[in-house]
Design brief:
The chain has five helices and seven strands. By secondary structure, the protein is an alpha+beta fold. It has one domain: Gcn5-related N-acetyltransferase (GNAT) (Aminopeptidase, 3-Layer(aba) Sandwich), CATH 3.40.630. A seven-stranded mixed sheet has the order 1-2-3-4-5-7-6, with helices on both faces. A hairpin with a 2-residue loop joins strand 2 and strand 3.
Length: 152
């Protein structure tokens, strides 16, 4: 099965929120629920909200949020969440989403990408294969060419 990864549209948000409901902690505790927050992130330039689909069916999604960092020497991209529907190939969808997230982070001038360490050993192995390494409570992956992208 082939998976297409693309930027999320506002019409994708309800399905993406439904897929990610179990992994989005504290949903509904703040002034906005997960779907409302995701709707706002679709249009922000410092965030990349991606979805994976096959045969026009949404099967997963991921969110990359950028922040400036003096110590990192540029922007740091944080993978805020990465979700895959239960009936789909977790490895292939995750790999496709991560590939596009890393490309987006590099295009936006990120020096590194980080994400929280997952508690599931299989998830950790998947991220390690993608080039992430433990750095305290986080996983980090430096991006190739980040130094040359920052030079004038």
């Amino acid at each position: 099965m082939e998976y297409l990864v693309r930027q999320a549209r506002i019409t994708d948000i309800e399905r993406l929120a439904a897929i990610g409901r179990a992994s989005i902690r504290d949903a509904g505790r703040g002034p906005l629920d997960a779907a409302d927050l995701l709707r706002q992130l679709v249009y922000l330039p410092n965030a990349s909200l991606l979805v994976a689909e096959t045969r026009r069916v949404l099967v997963g999604g991921a969110l990359l949020v950028l922040r400036p960092s003096v110590t990192a020497g540029g922007y740091v991209g944080t993978v805020d969440f990465l979700v895959v529907g239960p009936d789909h190939d977790l490895d292939r969808v995750t790999d496709a989403l991560l590939e596009e997230l890393l490309r987006s982070a590099a295009n936006k001038g990120c020096a590194t990408v980080e994400m929280a360490q997952p508690s599931d050993p299989a998830d950790l192995a998947r991220l390690t294969r993608a080039g992430f390494a433990a750095a305290g409570p986080m996983l980090r992956r430096p991006l190739a060419g980040a130094d040359s992208a920052r030079r004038p």
